[in-house]
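## retry 2 of 3
previous attempt timed out at serialization; input unchanged, resubmitting
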Amino acid sequence: MDCANCAKSIETGVAKLDGVTTCTLTYHNAKLKVGGEVEPEIIAARIKQLGYTAILEDDVAGQKPAMTNDSGIRGFVGFLLARRETALALLGLLLVLPGLVLDEILPISGLRFESPIFAVTSLAALGVAGLPIARSAWRQLTINHEISINLLMTIAAVGAVVIGAYTEAGLVMVLFAIGEALEGYTAVRARSAIQSLMAVAPNEAMVLRPCMDCREHLGQGGYVGGACPFCGIEEQRVAVGQIVIGDVVLVRPGEKVAMDGQVRKGTSQLNQAPITGESMPVEKQMGDSVFAGSINGEGVLEVVVTRLAKDNTLARIIKMVEEAQEKRAPAQKFVDRFAKYYTPVVVVLAMLVAALPPLILGASFWGEQGWLYRALELLVVACPCALVVSTPVAFISAISNAAKHGVLVKGGAVLEALNKTKAIAFDKTGTLTMGKPHVVRVQSVACLSVAQPCEWCDDLLALATSVERRSQHPLAHAVVKQAEVRQVFNRYAAADNVSAITGNGVLGEVAGHSVIIGSHAYFDRLVPHDRVICDEVEAASKLGQTPLMMGVDGLFAGYITVADTVRQSSRDALAQLKKAGKYLVMLTGDNAGTARHIAQQVGVTDIRAQLLPADKVEAIKALLGQHGNVAMVGDGVNDAPALATATVGIAMGAGGTAQAMETADVVLMQDDLRALPFVFRLSQATMRTIRVNVVFAIGIKLAFFMLVLMGLGTMWLAVLADVGASLLVTLNGMRLLGTRGVVSN
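## retry succeeded, writing output
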């Protein structure tokens, strides 16, 4: 397919088949999705009737792409020569050149070389370049029952032959054919952002597997087959399609990670830029998740595979970006509807231009600038290629650029909605904050030193770790992690007889002592402690910290305060959004004191605290009533109802979670809120580009229309203007591929 009109033609033709209920063809990735009771062979036959070729997606891998690796003019010529129709257009250009130079250009300077040979070569150019166009016009007229752009060009060329303008007839067809091919070449180049994603992950990986059915050791020591007890684990080079969940992949320094997985052994830094857009390498160690396509640093990693190649994060990103291309935005739908009625109207208008002036005013009908010639010019001028391509190329460029920077945007409609969004609501935990509590303070009652840490405080932390080390609670994880940092994790063995005190804390026995960890309210009732301690704990609570009170053998021993941490990127991101005129709101289930403390750190003034999921939905509805379009930013799991209610749901999805990807309209693949200002800038740039493209496409038509009516134009210049306009709006849309994203620290 050379242009978006080709896609519309195929869509229309396939949709007319019996049994077809839905039919969507995405021009930019050349994928046709058909729903209904119809055999693939019948669909392929209809597409062949329309002059195109289709293959099943499963067979794509074996096909040779009609694209060279070269760029520029050399690449375009290679693209033309790769297909019969476009190669004929190139031959037509060679045939029409003598007539163009000697019969069209030189006469302008006063020189004229007339020869019947020019007419012959021009008609030959018309035949070789125009036959595929005329055939396509006939198919669309008879199968789809629609007047196509190809039909406009065919009528114009035949009309030019009738009035004796042979060079112009040939030139119109040649320029149109090459112009269509140029659009196709440009569109293929525009797909490179997604195609480069597909090439990110390697096709093979080094897998650690036991030697199976070892011929060298068969029969030794009773070995008859299966895993060889003599060879043990071996390194085997395996295609990613043969790797299963649970396999262990060895990633050497400088290699790409082949599969999504979890680090089993080793430490290294990974460049995750192809997946998350992060510019700096990320430290990975045992237990951390890694993405296929990441580039390993200087360490050696053993990675346990957690997803198959077809289900990994990279594959899901590619799939979602391709699906996003299929979702037409309101602006694109309007342009498509406009073009549908525009072409037939132009045909009627051309007939009126040809007939009315001669009939009413007695003007000339024949001749070089007769009204028939002007009507034919009008058909050429009216070609809506530039208008049709003006919108989708901008959307796909923006979506591809966002994906390159680790942001998934699900369609042009989302970009259009983001451009109109005035208010943004943020979840607190896991969005503005890390969602991972850390220890702020460890205070033993025996500690007399202001300096931290001291031996008494370390011992208190070690006792708490002994009780909490087997708990899955986030606060327990914070305590254990701090013990590892202070190197007191192994001071005591895991506590015995650990039991939960429902709603109040946990109890266990450590080295013969009874240790209890509980809430301030619980200790107020059962474990005596000084008023000074109460004041300290209450002050910590007002700062958004959670106090864990500790007692040993029934006596108060001290306390540990734990708090969630604000993301480093949150303050900067929200400052940029506020500067851009966005109204910011924080929604949280936490108490008002904690909410205020976090809000002060990130710069939010509108705080709505102690909200259940249903309350967050009501808050979003209220914001919709006040501001119109509202974006909601959350973690994509517990905020799903609010994300769905908002105009645009934006999920933090650093883990590539299925929930985040499915629920939200936008997914930030790295947990960096500075990607948000980038997305809003990109949406504004996209809509601005589309407006410029549409105005330019219509403006160039109106300008040439006036020239036609004034008798100052020619058909071949009209084609050149149309091709030029299509190319310019395409290149202008592709500029969005270069919009800069977030820069991570």
